[in-house]
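ok trying again, last paste got cut off:
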Amino acid sequence: MMALDQVSTSCPDTRFSPKKAFDHQAWNSGCHISIIWYFYEDDPMNTVRYYDLSNVQGTARGWEREERILLCVPLRDAEQHMPMMFSHFRNFTYPHHLIDLAFLVSDSKDRTLQVLVQYLEELQNHEDPKQPYGEISIIEKDFGQQVDQNVESRHGFAAQASRRKLMAQARNWLLSAALRPYHSWVYWRDVDVETAPFTILEDLMRHNKDVIVPNVWRPLPDWLGGEQPYDLNSWQESETALALADTLDEDAVIVEGYAEYATWRPHLAYLRDPYGDPDMEMEIDGVGGVSILAKARVFRSGVHFPAFSFEKHAETEGFGKFSVVGLPHYTIWHLYEPSVDDIRHMEEMEQERLAKEAEEKARAEREKKIKDAFDDTNTQWEQDKSEMQKIAKEANKEAKESTEKSNSGSSKDSKPDSKQEEARDSKKTQERKGLADA
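nice, full thing came through this time. structure:
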């Protein structure tokens, strides 16, 4: 392979003999940057390929100009995330046939590779003709990554420097193996992005920047606040951080979000306004690697992900030392993975929940016993009322009977008195009659 530019006076290597005749000098004078592939005389392909790289610079409306995107995804022990990632792939609105997929599978202990192949076969054989993607590249390369994939290990401070340097190597290997002369854009995407607009490629591309990243947050359980900034690797430089860098060893790597390095940098994540303009741009000096859209010419110019301490930074943050734009109000959401502290807190909450349930159960049992002892209050009242009415009725009956007996005795006693009164009345009458006769 040979790269030629406008000022070059080079000619094909004498070891190569193109089978297809052409005027090299005339062609060379008409191109800014191009690549020609030459093949040995005995090559059976009989092919010469021309690539005019001035036509793959990347524009704001690449989907209209059929600009190709190389979508790169580093993978390690990512089997559990495959369904979510391919769900996003199926829903991208950028024309799928203009997107080439490249995966680097490294240091994996699970079935990442097998599951990846399975999902790719389903995607490429989809009945919807708009679903299949362009060229697919799967690369296997181990880098001796010893850090576990659990949250505590991956995000622990002690592992950050070595881990990020190895991640940078992985990105550079993947890019160098998959980037083709016809790619206008390169999009880096982490496998564990949970929520993002389906139009993210067009949305970022419209800004027509060399390198651009969205804001990255993550959802949290309600008891942890509901949401939280996730990617703190996108930041603006600060005087404090520059002074700190001058005090560190040459191979040291400054990492954000750790008490060991108080940089006081403005982070893209913390400047988010849920109601802000999603197209608002912010120049940043560090860039997170969750979701990066870059023009391919940036990498062709020699830019890469430093796998060493570059100005006291490495991997994507060192890459950001070149030129990057971030969108503080354009947010995608990373998958929530509970930390050890979160898990411990959840266990405490679970114990509290079980204790509360046990207490409620015991109280319910006590109430049931009381209810069973007194039965239903309404039924008991009816029974008491009936008993009281019965007693009152019996008391009334006894009182009535007693009154009747008393009245009966009084009547008997009063009869002789009446006869005596009648006798007296008769005597008085006779006396009055005698006086009258006299």
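cool. Confidence is low (pLDDT under 50) at residues 1-40. The chain has three domains: 1-55, 56-337, 355-404.
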